[in-house]
Amino acid sequence: MKFEVFSDRYLPKINQELKAYFSDRDDDIFDMISYALNSAGKRLRPLITLAVYAAAGKVIDDTAIKAATAVEFVHAYSLVHDDLPEMDNDSKRRGQDSVWKAYGVGNAVLVGDGLLTEAFKKLADLPIPDSLRLRLIYSLALAAGPDNMVRGQQYDLFSKEKVQSVEDLEFVHLMKTGSLMTYAATAGGILAGLPENALRYLNVYGANLGIAFQIKDDLKDIEQDKAEHKNSFPKLAGVDGSRAELAEHVKAAREAIEKIPNFQHSVLTDLLDQL
Ligand code: GRG
Asked: Could you confirm whether the keyword Magnesium appears in this record (predicted)?
């Protein structure tokens, strides 16, 4: 199945879950969190979790949707904080004012804090065996925390001098962007009860997808003439070099996913083809 067809089918369910989540709460903080969470994102990470779950032969039910959407809370937090004036200083996000622009910096910090912590509550609330819940919670904490996403952001924004080569930049983006993609892919496998070797292949898929996604993003910036980032792939490897790197990572991701036995990988490989 094409990724687009899969997305058309499950995006409304993901958005419905996100919209309903805080709808029974009434206070400013919930309104501001909903402003961030319900804006027009592609929901790529929950879709990856669901695509892996379905590829393993499982039927996507309400619990799977609830489980898959936790990572979107973390992703939304990362964007809210990334947009802050002291970080990437962006006034617009997903076609609307960024949260700090709409509600002020202090509120934007709190919106991010709320989204991040609620993600773990959401996983803890899942009606699944304790061992699976614990593994999902641990994996998301590892991906989002100082070993991965937080560290990648710190390198990217405040330790630019440490990023001198394509390898350095790949390491940064593996941590910054690849970490949640890797979590998203392995979470689908954990939920489906896949064996450890399959989870390792999903890990390789997610990591390479994350780096490929970032290279594609850098190349798009060049095409649209808005490449202001100092440490972009095209700056360090050139446009042709970046395209070659992109192809390498897509290939590595594809090879990994194709090695999983009894796994209907077409949605996940089609996502690679989009890159
Ligand atoms: C604040 C700890 C902390 C980390 C922030 C992911 C991140 C780390 C910052 C985002 C910076 C950025 C815009 C990177 C480009 C690639 C990227 C991750 C784009 C946003 O992801 P999409 O395209 O966005 O999935 P939507 O809006 O569709 O969800």
From this structure: yes
